[in-house]
C-alpha cells in the first residue's frame, strides 16, 4: 500500500515528540507509572480572565465562521501587542490568525517555497521545521551549533550557508529545544548579513518570547533595514498555556500575509471562533498577568540544572528561555546499562522510557544526535521524581 501514497508523504517522518508522547500515553494506559517530560505543554490552566472571555463568547453567540485571517478586533489587538511588547509596527491586513503556530508556519512555507529552494535552519531546531520544508519539496540547509556557543550561530556561519538558491531562514528565539536566547547585539549582527540579501525571507518563531529569564526578548524585525524581510510568528500555546485552543498568528509583509490567507482559505478557513475571542482577552492583558507562570518555570529550570549535575554522562549549558534543557549525552554512547548498550540518543530515550519510565525526546529529532530534550513544563514533584529515576537508572 505504501507505493500508493504520495511521494511528499513518503519523504517526511512522523513527529518524534508526538510519537514519544503517544508511546508514553499507551504505557500509562496499561498501568505503567510514566512521567512524561517529552511534550512542551505547560501544566497550568489558562488565566481566569481568558477562560471568562471564552465563556462570554459562547453566551454572546460567537459560533460562526470568522474572516479567514481572523476577527478584525483580534488582528487589531495583535498589532497593538506587537507594538507594546516588541516595538513592531504592523497593520491588521498584515496579520493572519491560524489554527496554531504549526499552521502559521506551513502557510508561509507553502506560500514561498518551490522545489529545490534552500531553507537555512540552525540546529538544534524545532522538530517540525525540517519535515515541513521537505514536505514542500525544498532543501533544508542545516547550520550546526554547539553548547560552547550556547547553540547560536555566528554571522560568518550564516553568510557561508547562503547561496543563490536560498529562499528562507527559519529560527526560534527563545529556542526549542535548547532554551538559547539571541541578544539584541547578536540579532543585529545577523541582520547586517541579511540586509545584503534582500530576497531572503526570515521566519522568526517567537512563541516563547515571554518565557525569558535573564534578558528581555528581542524581535529581529526591529531592525529597519530588514523589517520587510521578516515574518514574525507567535501564538498563545506556551505563555498563556492554551495549547489545545490552537491559536497562532503571523505579522508579515502584506504580500506574504495575503498569500497565507489564500492558502488557509483553501485548507481550514478560519481558526476557532471562541478561541479567537479568548485570544483577544489574552493579548490585551499586560505580560505581567502571566508573570507567575514565568517565575515558576525559572524555579523549575534552576532545580533541573542542579539535579542534572548529578546524573552520569549529562553535560549541560544554562538555558535562558523556553522550558527545556538539552544536555549532551554522548558520553553515554557505547556504555552498557542493565545489559543494554546505549548506541545513540534514540537508544537512550527508549531506554529511559523502558527502565526509568520517563519520557524524553532524542536529540536526533532536533538535528543534534548528541542531545536529549527534557521538558520542565511539568510539576515540580514530577520533575524531581523523573530526574531521580534517570539518575538511578544510569548509575
Automatic annotation (TrEMBL):
EC numbers on record: 2.6.1.-
Question: Would the keyword Plastid be found if you checked this record's keyword annotation?
Answer: no
**InterPro entries in UniProt:** Aminotransferase_I/II_large (IPR004839), AspAT/PAT-like (IPR050596), NHTrfase_class1_PyrdxlP-BS (IPR004838), PyrdxlP-dep_Trfase (IPR015424), PyrdxlP-dep_Trfase_major (IPR015421), PyrdxlP-dep_Trfase_small (IPR015422)
Give the cofactors, semicolon-separated.
pyridoxal 5'-phosphate
Q: Which residues form the Aminotransferase class I/classII large domain?
A: 33-390
Any one GO MF annotation of this record: pyridoxal phosphate binding
> GO biological process annotations for this chain's record?
amino acid metabolic process
> Which EC class is this protein assigned?
transferase
**Keywords noted in UniProt:** Aminotransferase, Pyridoxal phosphate, Transferase
Family membership, please give it.
Answer: Belongs to the class-I pyridoxal-phosphate-dependent aminotransferase family.
Query: Under which name does UniProt file this protein?
Result: Aminotransferase
Amino acid at each position: 500500500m505504501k507505493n500508493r501514497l504520495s511521494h511528499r508523504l513518503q519523504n517526511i517522518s512522523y513527529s518524534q515528540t508526538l510519537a514519544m508522547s503517544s508511546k508514553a500515553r499507551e504505557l500509562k494506559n496499561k498501568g505503567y507509572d510514566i512521567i512524561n517530560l517529552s511534550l512542551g505543554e505547560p501544566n497550568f490552566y489558562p488565566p481566569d480572565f481568558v477562560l471568562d472571555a471564552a465563556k462570554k463568547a459562547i453566551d454572546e453567540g460567537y459560533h460562526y465562521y470568522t474572516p479567514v485571517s481572523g476577527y478584525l478586533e483580534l488582528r487589531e489587538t495583535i498589532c497593538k501587542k506587537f507594538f507594546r511588547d516588541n516595538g513592531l509596527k504592523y497593520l491588521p491586513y498584515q496579520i493572519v490568525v491560524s489554527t496554531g503556530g504549526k499552521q502559521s508556519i506551513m502557510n508561509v512555507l507553502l506560500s514561498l517555497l518551490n522545489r529545490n529552494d534552500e531553507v537555512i535552519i540552525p540546529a538544534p531546531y524545532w522538530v517540525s521545521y525540517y519535515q515541513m520544508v521537505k514536505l514542500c519539496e525544498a532543501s533544508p540547509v542545516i547550520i550546526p551549533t554547539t553548547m560552547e556557543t550556547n547553540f547560536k550561530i555566528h554571522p560568518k556561519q550564516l553568510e557561508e550557508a547562503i547561496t543563490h538558491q536560498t529562499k528562507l531562514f527559519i529560527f526560534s528565539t527563545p529556542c526549542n529545544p535548547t532554551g538559547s536566547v539571541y541578544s539584541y547585539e547578536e540579532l543585529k549582527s545577523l541582520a547586517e548579513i541579511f540586509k545584503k540579501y534582500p530576497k531572503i525571507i526570515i521566519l522568526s518563531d517567537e512563541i516563547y518570547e515571554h518565557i525569558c529569564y535573564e534578558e528581555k526578548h528581542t524581535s529581529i524585525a526591529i531592525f529597519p533595514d530588514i523589517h520587510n524581510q521578516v515574518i514574525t510568528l507567535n501564538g498563545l500555546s506556551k505563555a498563556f498555556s492554551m495549547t489545545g485552543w490552537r491559536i497562532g498568528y503571523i505579522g508579515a509583509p502584506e504580500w506574504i500575509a495575503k498569500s497565507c490567507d489564500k492558502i488557509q482559505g483553501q485548507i481550514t478557513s478560519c481558526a476557532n471562533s471562541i478561541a479567537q475571542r479568548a485570544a483577544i482577552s489574552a493579548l490585551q492583558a499586560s505580560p505581567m498577568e502571566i508573570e507567575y507562570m514565568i517565575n515558576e518555570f525559572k524555579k523549575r529550570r534552576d532545580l533541573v540544572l542542579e539535579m542534572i549535575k548529578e546524573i552520569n554522562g549529562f553535560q549541560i549549558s544554562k538555558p535562558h528561555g523556553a522550558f527545556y534543557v538539552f544536555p549532551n549525552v554522548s558520553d553515554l554512547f557505547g556504555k552498557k546499562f542493565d545489559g543494554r548498550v546505549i548506541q545513540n540518543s534514540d537508544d537512550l530515550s527508549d531506554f529511559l522510557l523502558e527502565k526509568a519510565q520517563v519520557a524524553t525526546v532524542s536529540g536526533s529529532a532536533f538535528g543534534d544526535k548528541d542531545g536529549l530534550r527534557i521538558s520542565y513544563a511539568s510539576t515540580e514533584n514530577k520533575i524531581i521524581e523523573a530526574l531521580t529515576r534517570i539518575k538511578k537508572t544510569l548509575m
